Amino acid sequence: MSPAQERRVLAALLFGNFVTGTGILLPAGMLGDLAHGFDVSLPRAGLLLLVSGVVVALGAPLAAAFTSAVDRRWLLAASMLLYAVCHMASALAPNFAVLLAVRIVLAIPAAIFTPQAAATVGALLPAKRRGSAITVIFIGWSLATVGGMPLGGYVAHTLGWQVAFLIVAALSIVALLGVWLTVPRGVKIAPLNVASWRRVLTSQALMTVLLVTVLNGTGQFTFFTYLAPSLKASLSDNAELLTIVLAWYGTVATLGNVLVTRAVQRIGAPRSALFAFLVMSAGLIVWGAAATSLWAVLAGATLWGLGTFAANSVQQARLACIAPELTSASIALNTSAIYFGQAAGAGIGGTLIYVGLMLELPFVAAAILLVAVAASLVAQQWER
What we know:
This protein is mostly helical. The chain has a single domain, classed as Growth Hormone, Chain: A, CATH 1.20.1250.20. Helices cover 85% and strands 0% of the residues. The chain has 17 helices and no strands. α1 (3-29) runs parallel beside α8, α11 runs antiparallel to α15 and α11 (204-224) runs parallel beside α16. The longest helix has 29 residues, at 96-124.
């Protein structure tokens, strides 16, 4: 590809990841509205993120295993089409059970798009630019936190949660067109045989990095899933204030993702990941220690945000650098690890809320991330 074509492809995949991230994270921004609208408890509403996490976790490696012969342009475009249909169906859901069922189906295209977008970049670009390009397209997830979740939450507060789902459906169609017009025809991924999967599953370096991803996701989503109701409980039920806090958190997360693309080249992926986990842990502790102060919450959100999606991006680059020829499989498993963490975090957070410990969520999340720090140090030894 020419440099201009390369930029267009990366922009389209970045936007596709933005839409994917917005759709997955949307319930977290309007969890209280959904719980009230369907007359269910917050832990029950949290199942919307739990089930999508489980489905993506199981579906990502299956998609990598069985779609290698499919043209990437067709695969990515079709996943965005299904995403649009599922969000339209979500807006029309008559009860919580139907919405939960739709979320299960909606998770299938999410399981396809994110890891296969990274695999597509891996197939199109030379090894020296692969790692930084993968972190670039994952900026889309950061942007989903900046605009997608807070604006979705604001729309839900003001116009209704149905409108928020319809907006994501429209964005999915735009992402479909972007992929179709930029990704070259005939891009396929080398088939992953049993030996390839065995190499990933028996690699101590790769599997330890994947464990780090699970712990990272678990720690973050223990608090992130219930971020909006937690802010309401500690600060205010004001929709504008909640939107500002969430948007600030997302803005810093985007900045952190941009900075990590440079840090990976200078200090390496393992050290970049370690820094991200430590910064996030500090931010959650600050948030939890003074949750009734807006300035303390913003300070905590700044530290937490700096590492949030930077950690996810650097973990992808970490895997690609360990075994470039196994990128499709390892990144698919990393996506599974992220969403297993999401499901586990949603479950842990919901359980804590059920027993009356909502205000302790950030401390528990920070403790889990510190375990991720220890696991990352072990992984760093295997990478060497």
